[in-house]
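I can't quite decide. Please look over this sequence plus structure tokens:

:::
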Amino acid sequence: MRTDLHDQPASSAPAGRGHPLAAPCAILLLASLLAPGCDMGVRPDSGGDRIPPTDVEPPLPVIASIIPDTALPGDTVALGGEHFGASADTGAVLFGDLDGAILSWTDTFVTAVVPSIDRSVPVAVRSGARTGKASPFSLTGDRTPLIVAVSPAAARAGDTITVAGLRFSDAPGRLLFHDGVEEMPPVDRWSDSVITAVVPVEALTGPLVVAAGSLSSEGFPFTVKPLIPLPRLTLLVPGRTIPGDTLTLEGDSLGEGADGRIVRFTSADRSAAAGAVVSWTRESVKVIVPAGAASGPVGIVDGSRRSNTLLFERAARKVRWADMDALFSRTCRFSGCHGPPPAANGLSTLTAADLLDDSSVNGPVIARRRSDESFLLAVLRASRSVPGPLTVVRPMPLDVPRLTAGQILLVSDWIDQGSRR
């Protein structure tokens, strides 16, 4: 049986003392939980319909619990037990000689409104012509708020909780968390029997108290869960590539595994597509760039939680080694510097393997899928910040015109797409 208060139907009638619909269904549900030994009154093979035996006399109704067992006229109480009967049409809840207005009725629990009694009386359930054994019930003149249930019983700061009970007053009061931290009005909802409010950041695990005027309820156990940090992205590798290629998102608090999480690519027209997940850890996520992806922000969606976004650029096309070979043959190899051995500084551009090995005096000149960290791109761009042991280099190539921005972008795309051979 579910006990989530948010799933219970809300009354459209005004809440307040004396109104039969003022109390929440949570009281009924909590009563059923406190009577775990009760027969739920449904045969497994009956499709939910009770099939009473026809050859024996029906058993008397039995009350196992009353919540609360001390209340005022107009308050709602929940009775848990068994053999109440399938319908209120032939049943009643008797407070002494007076009937309580029935709010709900099943074979195992009933909710009813305390009638206008003027003293403590026994309570009994009548089913048809048979009345069960009465249970004690106390009338009180105390208007102290009473918390019956909190849902969820454990939540994080920023989550919404529902507090159900009695005598909260229709005028908003205060909801006090552990150490006196309070959620001041306006809250989402405040009635005589239901409060919904947001858990404040300062809240700690401990008793929850409802204060109405000068009266305060007893503390009700409530647990504050630790906050889960939002996913944070720091780097896309590569930052520019084509659909079908692998994109790595680096960061922290990205989550353990892809269950319930996606990487969303958003285009300028606000259309979105998710990348197929290759692997997922807390620090790194690898996805396949979807076919419909265009240049735009990329981020992680984890249910209602969102990471920051980083800019993804869609490359114009797939770049192969043939494109690089044609470019290097008329630039870097043209003067004989980086062609056949002996190549200048040990760097040959004859094959992709030559660029990927560490024969150059500067070590590997390409960091696959990381063009911005590649020595080759730094010298082609005449960057002041050059990866590797050298702090100052001459812009390349020498003795021929410098590469155009479009040609440099082609080299960058080749590196970012995995330096295909």
About this structure: Residues 1-26, 28-48 have pLDDT under 50 and may be disordered. The chain is about 10% helix and 30% strand. The two ends are 61 Å apart (CA to CA).
